[in-house]
Write a structure and sequence with these properties.
Layout: H1 5-14, H2 18-26, H3 36-49, H4 52-65, H5 70-82, H6 86-99, H7 104-116, H8 119-128, H9 142-166, H10 186-190, H11 208-223, H12 227-238, H13 244-254, H14 271-276, E1 285-297, E2 303-310, E3 317-325, E4 337-346, E5 349-358
Amino acid sequence: MAKDAITLAWKDMRRRHFATAIKRLESKADVYEDNFEYYLILGIACLYVGDIGAASSYLQMARRIRLTDTRLLLAQAAIFLRRGDSARAIQYYLEIKENDPGNKTADAALAFIRVHGDYDTICRWVDTGRIEQFYPPLGFNPDKVALIVSPLLACLLGVAVVLFAFKRGQHYPAYRADLSQLELSAEEAGDAKEKDLTNQTYKYILSNKEIVRKYNDALRYFQSNRDNAAQIEINRILNSDAALSIKQKSRILAGYLETPDFDSVQDVPSYTEVASEPVLYMDCWVNWGGKISNAVTYDNGSFACDLLVGDETLSTYEGKVSVRFDSPRDFDGTSYVQILGQIAFEGGNWYLKGRSIYQKVKK
């Protein structure tokens, strides 16, 4: 079945064939007059090829038709950011946050402006193309995926069969977001340490090589669905003397980490590890077992308790941790439980932000 020009243009965009998308759509100007998607795609394509004048024109046409589309606002905010007009860019990003509170691109852009919003840095990011990470996302590039997958498909299928036979029931990582834009530039890799250490203290003092290795490990763990392992490396970087640009990329990467369940959580730190160095495990997920004590359900519906971490009889006891849930929980206080929760901090103390409680059904 023949596909329309807009659908084909989006496919061109995902393959990063921006000139092809522009040429395809401009030949259909008479067909798509006053069509929002038509003007939006043209504007985004022109933005990616650096034709900012044409991008602004097409995006303004799109804005006359629809005002609050997130892709449109991201594109227009990026234009203001490129020009060094951070104040106007912030207005657009805040508008995006009102309509789409979880938008990661807006979060990353606001964090960038806060840390690196000076005109000179923006110019360098425009020059190197790094500014494109704040453009409307295009999703996976199917050409890249095919290039990687095709030569290895037969081998991977064979490996998958073998692994399935020996590790039946194990969760295998799916292909995840393309974070190539978060890879360190040659400049960042060559100068990874913060220069100005005046009046600053760091928990971890790392060498240039260690910072680069830890950051690349975090990216590798992410693509392997080992989010806890990635989070640990991110925390190490954020609490080190790494350069601000690398810390910023680490924060952006952290925004892509997902919430696990009891079966999928990996690289779970022990209670002893977290208690000895809680900063390193901030935001990591654990599925610890033990007994519940001091359970309280508050008037607002939230629930809190202490988890006595250990085995089913508590003959092996590791320690006590406070757990908080946003909603009530039903459980048998005399029986062993497992709690899935995330390491969090408040007032200098760490606790578990609870997600789920699991108990075996009594026979």
